[in-house]
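Form 7-S
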Amino acid sequence: MAIAAAAGYQATAIDLFNDVDTQAASNASIKADHYPEDLFDHAESSKANYWLYTGCLENYPEQIAQLAAKKTLLGNDQDVIHKCRSPEFISELAIDADWYYPDAAIARGSLTNNELQCWISKPRLSAAGQGVQIWRT
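Output:
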């Protein structure tokens, strides 16, 4: 927000917390009481022609696609989000680029014949490290 304001853009923030710094960096700031529904509803009803998202709204790619069909999205669309959140896709990229990349397994039911004793478990719909934990076999 601060960068947009410094560049001379008029920015409206729709925020779950409506923090003081968000208010200071935007022309208007709207508090969204129900997450994420209010964010998308307010964005859809705004007069703005363009929009972008931050935070863990990437957990809602279908809603992002719906709003992007109505207003120009300045950011990653639904297809990019799905690729970036795909451990399989990221693993393939790393292998093709000859990068060091940790072994990964996608849990689908119970894992059997596991040679490793310790894994990191991360929920697919999370952000900011929430829900990351050690998972031991």
